[in-house]
Amino acid sequence: MKPTATVALIALAVALGACGGGGGDNSRTRLDVAAAASLTKAVTAYARQFGDANHATVRVRFGGSDELAAQVRQGVPTDVFLSADQTQPRMLHAAGAVHTPVSFASNRLVVAAAKGGGVNSLSDLANSGVKLALGGPSVPIGKYGRFAIAHLPGVNATAVLKNVRSEEPDVKSVVAKVTTGAANAGIVYVTDANAAKAQLTTIAIPQSAQPRILYDAAVGSKSKQADLARRFIDGLRTGAGRTDLQNAGFLGTEQ
After folding, report:
1. Over 70: is that where the pLDDT of 25 sits?
2. What gap in Å lies between CA 175 and CA 173, rounded to an integer?
3. Which of 47, 135, 144, 202 is most buried by its number of CB atoms within 10 A?
């Protein structure tokens, strides 16, 4: 990830901590959460109410799951890790960096297309001159997007991949490429497409080309607030956090 992007993530984390109602209140317990960028809307809402209910300051840093996992390995304080896949939490667990991961949400993919950008169907993704944005190959949205391309019925996957003009560090960056006109289309989560629906159009991806997208959560093995971290995760699975996830368009793990 570019240094400027990392700085932006840190700034957002500090800002959210202050919004939690106790940025300068030393009596409030601090909970550090690392969350996939696609969770921004739901986790921001949940973190605020969770902090107020538990007299805690919840500081969230959002980014690509691979970048956040690297931070956990490097020792960046992390009480809760929320990944857009199962791979990163399982690797961290195998390395002893987090406790046993649990699934808390699922998602689906769509093609996000720029309005008037010439991409109106899945087959258009293979047309000459189309500029496609994908997540980088190491981030979940990039892996999922490439799976979808390989399984799109009746679409030349090789031609589609030749149209990739940018590989982004997270799904928010893919959406930004499309909404600013830097790309004609991108493959994103339906939750992120819905959040930007006024600025783009969506094209459904059939079930046969949908990867299994499960979001996993884990408590950091060095967390000094392990009980609070577990309560935070529990709320995403069965409590107020689940409601925030549903409001943002996420699906349950049973999907």
Report:
1. no
2. 5
3. 135
* Edge-to-edge strands, sheet with 80-83: 56-63, 29-36, 80-83, 214-219, 102-106
The rounded distance, in Å, linking the Cα atoms of 224 and 61 is 18
Contact residues for 174 (Cβ-Cβ < 8 A; gap 6+): 112, 133, 134, 135, 141, 168, 183, 186, 187, 188, 192
Any idea what the Cα angle at residue 234 is, between residues 192 and 25, rounded to 5°? 85
What is the SS3 string spanning the chain?
CCHHHHHHHHHHHHHHHHHHHHCCCCCCEEEEEEEEHHHHHHHHHHHHHHHHHCCEEEEEEEECHHHHHHHHHCCCCCCEEEECCCHHHHHHHHCCCECCCEEEEECCEEEEEECCCCCCCHHHHHCCCCCEEEECCCCHHHHHHHHHHHHCCCCCHHHHHHCEEEEECCHHHHHHHHHCCCCCEEEEEHHHHHHCCCCEEEEECCHHHCCCCEEEEEEECCCCCHHHHHHHHHHHHHCHHHHHHHHCCCECCCC
- What confidence tens digit (pLDDT) does each residue in 61-97 have? 999 999 999 999 999 999 999 999 999 999 999 999 9
Reported as a single tens digit per residue, the pLDDT across 41-71 is 999 999 999 999 999 999 999 999 999 999 9
User: Is 110 in contact with 188 (CB distance < 8 Å)?
Assistant: yes
Q: What is the largest CA-CA distance in the chain?
A: 60
Rounded (5°) CA angle 102-251-226: 30
